[in-house]
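Handoff note, outgoing to incoming analyst
You'll be picking up this chain. Sequence as last confirmed:
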Amino acid sequence: MSESEPAIRARGLTKKFGDLVAVNDMDLTVARRQVYGFLGPNGSGKSTSIRMLCGLLTPTEGDIEVLGLKIPDEADALRKRIGYMTQHFSLFTDLTVRENLEFLAAIQNLSRRDTTARVDELLEEYHFSDRADQLAETMSGGQKQRLALAGAVIHKPELLFLDEPTSAVDPESRRDFWEKLFELADAGTTLLVSSHYMDEAERCHRLAILDRGVLVADDSPADLTGSLRGRTLEVRTDHPRRAKEILLGVSGVISAAQIGNSLRVLLEKVDDNTARINEAFEREGLSAEAEPTEPSLEDVFVAVTYREEEQS
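Most recent structure output, in case you need it:
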């Protein structure tokens, strides 16, 4: 497979469960050696999409090509070349760290010699050298996730799927986990990571935002936030609840979210809303002022899901 060819290409990807449309007409392209993110709330279609791309679920409609293979027809051949990690710790808690890795190596049909070398390599690389004989059940959540990641790459997959991998770990462990992901990408692995954390989404090279089974945005985090420049404001006031009531009565205001004693405001478009908002505050006798601020991924998410709601 050529380096210029995408690792994943899907067109018209749709999955229905009875009357429920879990994924609706998704087009997706993931470049090689990239950390590609799926951002969306629970029920947005992230896990269903990943399972179809892995060949674990058959799509209702659409075409999928992963690592040059047609899916689901060539799913068996694909499984030897991909890794998959779920949000729940899926290894054996009654086995040691080393035993878990050896078991996964056996599943991937590694030879005894290759298994020994690879397990020793992963114990060192994932900082388990002093815990090789520790039972998995006695480890912290962050250590378990790190072990699960080591297990998912035991066979050096070309493509790694991670479904909400850090949902149950603390912020420091999440940060360390993401460092490992970038090490994998630098070494040539393509990664598709689903998350509902905005700070994780910002780390990705490219990001897809899913809402109720629809891919509503797909670009780099910088370009996604840049597309909203001029549409985000910050309102400083000692009376944020009252200010929010006024804001939601001003035409062109999509949302106003309180953050401490300030409000983050998203506008429908770039126009004279700032002046009109300040005039509304003055009319109501409220001491508050709106000023432009840099957009965030949360603003992007609100904007693209708002547009989807308006069209439905």
